[in-house]
């Protein structure tokens, strides 16, 4: 399995460090420490891979453009609500 026990146990702190690593929010020294840990820990490497996949899917999903018909319906509904509450 993994090497977490010998490297200080993987707890919430290690998971936070993993997110900081992915976000590019670590010093060079800390970046190297997390990278080294990922090379020797199957569990953390799996978490890293999973988070990379999730981030990729979210990034791809955020690029999708809503159809014009949906935008039109939303704007029409907003106008209806404004009229109903007296702000239109």
Automatic annotation (TrEMBL):
<keyword id="KW-0805">Transcription regulation</keyword>
<dbReference type="InterPro" id="IPR027383">
    <property type="entry name" value="Znf_put"/>
</dbReference>
<keyword id="KW-0804">Transcription</keyword>
<dbReference type="InterPro" id="IPR024020">
    <property type="entry name" value="Anit_sigma_mycothiol_RsrA"/>
</dbReference>
<dbReference type="Pfam" id="PF13490">
    <property type="entry name" value="zf-HC2"/>
</dbReference>
<protein>
    <recommendedName>
        <fullName>Putative zinc-finger domain-containing protein</fullName>
    </recommendedName>
</protein>
<feature type="domain" description="Putative zinc-finger">
    <location>
        <begin position="17"/>
        <end position="45"/>
    </location>
</feature>
<dbReference type="InterPro" id="IPR041916">
    <property type="entry name" value="Anti_sigma_zinc_sf"/>
</dbReference>
């Amino acid at each position: 399995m993994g090497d977490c026990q010998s490297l200080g146990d993987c707890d919430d702190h290690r998971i936070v460090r993993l997110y900081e690593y992915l976000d590019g929010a670590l010093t060079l020294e800390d970046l190297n420490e997390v990278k080294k840990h990922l090379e020797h820990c199957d569990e953390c490497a799996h978490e890293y891979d999973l988070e990379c996949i999730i981030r990729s899917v979210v990034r791809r999903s955020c690029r999708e453009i809503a159809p014009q018909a949906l935008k039109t319906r939303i704007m029409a509904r907003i106008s209806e609500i404004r009229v109903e509450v007296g702000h239109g």
